[in-house]
């Protein structure tokens, strides 16, 4: 993929973030998501790719736009897999909380795992711990190893986890071992990426979240030199068979970075909708301007760009795309 594509992709996440931001705190996650999806879909038409959505808003019969298998892009340019989450953290926006983003990963065709819509157990770390830990180890041991590698006391580790009742036993363990815990209300793409940003002050991300979000976070961590290990959690025989039908022969095996993102030719872009661990949210300024904060990066070069943009809203015709 040409490197210029990275800037085209960040335009798409910017527009989706701008479209969903007006819904902050209005208690309507469907409208926030619909606005982001319509804007993202419209903007994709201007991007020079022959894209196939492999992670999207759902199956063809459930989602009118950005469904799995949908073709996106101007039909000129490289054949690529596209993973999207137009609004990662719908509930966050509805409640006006932190860490909602608009997210896209693009890789050469056939290189992104087609993750089924189910939970995935995750262990995500930044560059210092990449290759040093294993999801197969008991959590206590993982924490001890992490502390040793980081030359910290266990009590000085900060671990991020989604605040969910299904994590009760993990939270008990974290408290028993004595680490600091930062709870996420939602938005575990940002959560899993956080350990790769020293300013976020997070050493590890643990716990289960969506499998599609796991692949998006793996794409980001590939660009950041971090690591995510995942294990699908099929809830019943149907979900198990679904994994197999999607080409994952042993649904319980550990998924490595390579399994989820099989190439260095991957671009990741995200724009903050509400403020988060490493990105600011959309801010409205005087003079009908809005400010966005984005990150865009390529695994090939591992260049990480933070882009602050000032948009003049009356000129954003695609913002008014129909949901
Ligand atoms: O809310 P659950 O069922 O624990 O699911 C966790 C998943 O939901 C999210 O918090 C938010 O997902 P949505 O944007 O689809 O609402 C994800 O980041 C996370 O992977």
* Computed Rg: 19 Å
Taken from the alpha-carbon principal axes, the silhouette is globular
CATH topology of the largest domain: Fructose-1,6-Bisphosphatase, Chain A, domain 1
Number of separate helices: 9
Q: What is the number of strand segments?
A: 13
What is the CATH top level name of the largest domain?
Alpha Beta
Helix amount: 25-40%
What oligomeric arrangement do these chains adopt? Answer: single chain
Overall average pLDDT: 96
Model regions low in confidence, pLDDT < 50 over at least 5 residues: none
- How many domain regions? 2
The ligands found in this model are: 1,6-di-O-phosphono-beta-D-fructofuranose
CATH architecture of the largest domain: 2-Layer Sandwich
Q: CATH superfamily membership of the largest domain, which one? A: Fructose-1,6-Bisphosphatase, subunit A, domain 1
The string of secondary-structure elements, in order, is HHEEEHEEHEHEHEHEHHEEEE
Based on helices, strands and strand pairing, what is the structural class? Answer: alpha+beta
Could you give a short account of the major beta sheet? 8 strands, mixed
Distance between the termini: 30 Å
Strand coverage percent: 25-35%
GO molecular function, one term: metal ion binding
Binding site for Mn(2+) 1: 33, 57
Cofactor: Mn(2+)
Pfam families: FBPase_glpX
């Amino acid at each position: 993929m040409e490197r210029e594509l990275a800037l085209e992709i960040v335009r798409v996440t910017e527009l989706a973030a701008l479209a969903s931001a007006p819904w902050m705190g209005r208690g309507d996650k469907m409208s926030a998501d619909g606005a982001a999806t319509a804007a993202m879909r419209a903007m994709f038409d201007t991007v020079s790719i022959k894209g196939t959505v492999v992670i999207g808003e759902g199956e063809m019969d459930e989602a009118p736009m950005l469904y799995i298998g949908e073709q996106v892009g101007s039909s000129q340019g490289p054949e690529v897999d596209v993973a999207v989450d137009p609004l990662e953290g719908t509930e966050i926006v509805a409640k006006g909380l932190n860490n909602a983003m608009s997210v896209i990963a693009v890789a050469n065709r056939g290189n992104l795992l087609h993750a089924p819509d189910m939970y995935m157990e995750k262990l995500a770390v930044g560059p210092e711990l990449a290759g040093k830990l294993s999801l197969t180890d008991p959590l206590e041991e993982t924490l001890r190893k992490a502390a040793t590698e980081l030359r910290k006391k266990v009590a000085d580790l900060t671990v991020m986890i989604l605040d969910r009742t299904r994590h009760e036993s993990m939270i008990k363990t974290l408290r028993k071992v004595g680490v600091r815990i930062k709870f996420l209300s939602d938005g575990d793409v940002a959560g899993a990426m956080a350990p790769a940003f020293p300013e976020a002050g997070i050493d590890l991300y643990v716990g289960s979240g969506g499998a599609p979000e796991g692949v998006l976070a793996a794409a980001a961590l590939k660009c950041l030199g971090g690591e995510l290990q995942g294990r699908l959690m099929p809830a019943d025989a149907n979900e198990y068979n679904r994994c197999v039908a999607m080409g994952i022969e042993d649904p319980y095996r550990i998924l490595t970075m390579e399994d989820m993102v099989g190439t260095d030719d991957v671009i990741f872009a995200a724009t903050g909708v509400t403020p988060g661990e490493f990105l600011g949210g959309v801010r409205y300024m005087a003079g009908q301007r809005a400010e966005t904060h984005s990150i865009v990066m390529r695994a090939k070069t591992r260049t990480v760009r933070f882009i602050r943009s000032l948009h003049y809203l009356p000129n954003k015709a695609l913002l008014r795309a129909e949901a």
